Amino acid sequence: MNSDTSLQSILTNPAHPPEISAKTCPLERLGRLLRGTWTLQVLWVLGEGRPLRFGDLRTVIEGISAKVLTERLRFMEHTGLIWRCHEEGVPPKVTYGLTEVGTELHDGLKRLGRITDKLPPE
Amino acid sequence: MNSDTSLQSILTNPAHPPEISAKTCPLERLGRLLRGTWTLQVLWVLGEGRPLRFGDLRTVIEGISAKVLTERLRFMEHTGLIWRCHEEGVPPKVTYGLTEVGTELHDGLKRLGRITDKLPPE
DNA sequence: CAGGATCCCCCCCGATACTG
DNA sequence: CAGTATCGGGGGGGATCCTG
Predict the structure, then answer these.
(1) How many helices (H) and strands (E) does chain B have?
(2) Per-residue confidence of chain A (122 residues) as pLDDT tens digits?
(3) Contacts of A52 in chain B (CB under 8 A)
(4) A107 interface with B at CB cutoff 8 Å
């Protein structure tokens, strides 16, 4: 326990050139991965439940439009968070689910989400 | 290991009404908390380093404008992720740092950020 | 059923200029 | 130094209509 690490010392100590850089920030990619209003909710419902069809996702994620859902699904498939299973036939049947990485991300974020419980209500 | 949990079984089993809901999705608030292009980078530099002054943040987070930085800082202060320390005087001196919750979030996200290493390069 | 196409809007952000 | 004010652009999103 060094008193030099105290808040007052840190704030008043002039010898603190900021050596850290945001250039190698690993959170930047994570941010782009999760960009979009609905991405986290897609990750959530697929992670909590099971693989779902397009229509089910529309139902479960209340308020999302078909266009945006398609966009998000395409993007998340592209980045490797989800897979897409297309069964030919009439009517068509398309199912989406989390990849291994997607599942990891869901689990991690779920744990992280509990942190917000410590914050005052909005 | 039950074969009923296999992918084929899940996908072809019709008895799967989606009972999960996105209504209680705890990731929604997390998403709003981290919304904005620069929020994660602010969290990153403050979490990796030490409390920084406004000008230092502008320098370290390359490319951010004063306006957006101010917006993000105000918002993150409002949500309780960072604190703001204003020292009167000429020139003025304003320092920002992570709160306890902000630090927790940074640490969690940092661990989570490593998951993206498993994804193919963009 | 699972989308594609189109139009519009709003919010986030960038740039510039100015101030206590 | 640490912001504020203002203008303008772009992309994500909503609503509606259409299709394989």
Answers:
(1) 6, 3
(2) 444 444 454 445 544 445 677 777 889 899 999 999 999 999 999 999 899 999 999 999 999 999 999 999 999 999 999 999 999 888 999 999 999 999 999 999 999 999 999 998 88
(3) 18
(4) no
Of residues A95, A42, A50, A60, the one with CA closest to residue B21: A60
Provide CB contacts within 8 A for B8, sequence distance 6+.
Answer: none
How does pLDDT run across B78-97, given as a tens digit for each residue? 999 999 999 988 899 999 99
The domain ranges of chain B are 1-35, 37-122
Class of residue A104 by CB neighbours under 10 A (exposed 0-12, middle 13-18, buried 19+): middle
**CATH tag, B37-122:** 1.10.10.10
pTM metric for this prediction: 0.86
- Residues A1-7: contacts with CB within 8 Å, 24+ apart? A7/B51, A7/B97
Q: State which amino acid sits at residue B43.
A: L
Residues in chain A within 8 Å Cβ distance of B31? 34, 37, 39-41
